[in-house]
Amino acid sequence: MVPYFIALLLLGLPIAWAEWALGRYGGTRGYNSVPGIFRAVLRRPIAPYLGALGLLIPVVIYMYYAYIEAWCLAYSVKMATGQLALGASQHNYVAYFAKFVGFENNGEAFDLSRGIGDSAITYLAICFILNFVLIYRGLSRGIEWFCKWAMPALVLCALVVLIRVLTLGTPDPHYPERSLLNGLGFMWNPGVAGESFWHSLANAQMWLEAAGQIFFSLSVGFGIVLCYASYLREKDDIALSSLTAVAGNEFAEVALGGLISIPAAFVFLGAAGTTEAARSTFNLGFMTLPHVFSAMPFGQGVGALFFFLLFLAAVTSSLSMLQPAIALLEEGLGLGRRASVTLLGFVTAVGTGFVVYFSKDAKALDTLDFWVGTFCIFLLATIQVILFGWVLGIERGYEELQRGAQLRVPRLFMYIIKYVSPAYLVAIFSAWVYQQVTAEKDNYLRAAVHDPVARLSVGLIVLVALLFVLLIAQSVRRWNKNDAQRGVDEP
Amino acid sequence: MTYGGWIIMILSVGFVTSLFVWTVARVIRTPDASTRLHGEIDIDTRDRDT
Asked: I need a labelling partner for A176 at 20 to 30 A (CA). Which of A215, A284, A384, A434 fits?
C-alpha cells in the first residue's frame, strides 16, 4: 500500500489534473482526438504520432475488458438462477470459473457443448452487441442517466457485502489460520510475506504495478480523459470534477475493494491460494465473491444484483474507451460516427476473439494487460506530464486548470507535475528495465520473446499501433491542408 | 494482523473515505453543479449522425 499511496499523490492525482487541463486546452483549439490535442500543445511534426498511444491503449484494453464485462453479466444471471450455488468447497468456485472462461485450454471458451446459455461466448456476444448498439446510436447519455441511480446502488450493495465479509470470522474449522483477521493482515500488513518491509520496497516491479494500478483505477494515462475533457466548455470546472472522480474511484478500490476481495479470498483460499488468484486482479472477485454470497442471507439476490451493477459499471467504461478512436476517425478522416463505430467494431471484434481463443492461463489477456494496461499507460502518462509541465508550462497549465474551477488546486501540485512526477516515472521505469533484463526467472520481457502466445499478443499490439499510425498520418495531411487554407503555419 | 497493518489500514481507508465525503459535499454545495461539473460519461460529444 505504501507504493500505491505514493503513486496516488505524486502521479495519479497530479496527472489527472494535467490530463483534464490538456484535454480542454486542445478542445478550445478545435481538437478532440489525442493526436490533435498533442498537436495543439506541442507544435512539432512528431506530436500527433505520440498521441497514437492515446488510441492504442483504450482500444486494446477494450479488447479484453469486453470479455470481463461478459463475465459480470454471466455471473449475474448465474447467481440469479442458482447455478453458482456450488457448496462449501472453495475449489468448486475456482474450478467453475476456470472452466467457464477457458483457463485450462486454448479455445475452450468457444466450446458450446455445455449449452449455448452456459457459454462465455454467448454473454460476450450480448455485451459486444449491446455496447456497439449504444455507441452506434449515441445513447451513452441515456446510460449516464441510468448510472446516476445504478452507481449509488452498487456502493450500497458493496457495503452490504463488506459487512458480510467483516463478519465471516473463521468459517472453516479445519483451517483455523484462515481467519478474517489474518486476511486483513494479508492485505494490509506492511511488506511482503517472507521479505523485510524495506527489501520488498526495493522491488521495481511492485512500484511499476502500483503506478499501473493507480492509472487503471483513475483511468488516467489512457487518453480517455484527454478526449472527453476536450468537449468541455471553457468555463466548466475541471479541478473539482477530476478530484471527485479520483476520490470516488479510490473509495471504491481501497475502502470497499481492499476490505472485501483479498480478505475474503484469504478466508476461503488461504495465503498460497490468494497469492495465486491475485496474480490477475480480474479473476479474484469471480472466484471468491460467489462463495461469500453463498454464505450470507439473501446471498443469491444480493449477488445477482451486485454482479449486474458491476456489469453496468463495466458498460459505462467500455463506452468511453472507444471515444478517443472515434474522435480521430471523425476529425482526422472526416468519417461519420456510425462509420467510425463500424470500423472500430471490426477491429475490436478481431482482438477480443484473439483474447478469448488464447484463454489458457489467461495468457493473452495477461500479456495485453501488462504491455498496454501498465507499460503503455506508463509511457503516455510520462508524455503527458512532460507536455503539461515543460511544453505548455505550469503557469499556462495552472491557468487552464483554474478557469471555471470550483476548487483552488494548491500550486505545489504544479511543481510536483513539473519535477517530481517525471523523475518518479523515469526512475521506476529505469529500475524496472534493469530488473527485467538481469532477472533469472521468467518475466514479461522474456515471455514476449520465448512464449508463442505472449509473442502473438505483442504482435497484435504492434499491428493495432501501426493501424493508428497510418490513420494519424492521413489525419495530419488533412490538418495541414486546413491550416494552409486558414493561413496557419504547419508544425 | 500486525500493529503496522492496523495503522496502514485505518490511515488508508480513513483518508480515501474522508476525501470522498469531502468532495461529494463540495459537489452538492456547488450552485448549478449539474451544468458546471462533469464526469466522463455525462460529457456530450456532440457527434451523433443525423
From this structure: A284
User: Which among A102, A427, A5 is positioned nearest to B12, based on CA atoms?
Assistant: A5
Q: What's the rounded mean pLDDT across residues A409-432?
A: 91
pLDDT value at position B48?
62
Q: Check: CB of residue A216 under 8 Å from CB of residue A7.
A: no
Collect all residues of chain B within an 8 Å Cβ-Cβ radius of residue A219: 40
Alpha-carbon distance values, A432 to A194, A209, A257, A281, A375 (Å): 21, 10, 27, 21, 11
A68-125 confidence digits (pLDDT tens): 999 999 999 999 999 888 887 778 888 899 888 888 889 888 877 777 778 889 999 9
Tell me the C-alpha distance between A347 and A95, whole Å: 32
Residues of A in contact with B41 (CB under 8 A): 140-141, 143-144, 147, 316, 319-320
Sign of CA dihedral A149, A153, A154, A159: positive
Q: Do A144 and B42 touch (CB under 8 A)?
A: yes
End-to-end, the C-alpha distance of chain A in Å comes to 44
Query: What tens digit of pLDDT does each residue of A222-232 get?
Result: 899 999 999 99
- Which residue, among B40, B42, B48, would best test binding to A if mutated, counting the most A CBs under 10 Å from its CB? B40
Of A388, A380, A385, the C-alpha closest to A420 is A385
Q: What mean pLDDT do residues A263-272 have?
A: 83
Q: Which residues of A touch B15 (CB under 8 A)?
A: 5
DSSP 8-state symbol, A46: T
CA distance A4 to A206: 9
0.95 surpassed by pTM: no
pLDDT at A328: 93
Q: What is the pLDDT of residues A322-359, one digit of tens each?
A: 889 999 999 888 888 889 999 999 999 999 999 999 99
Q: Provide the 8-state DSSP code for A1.
A: -
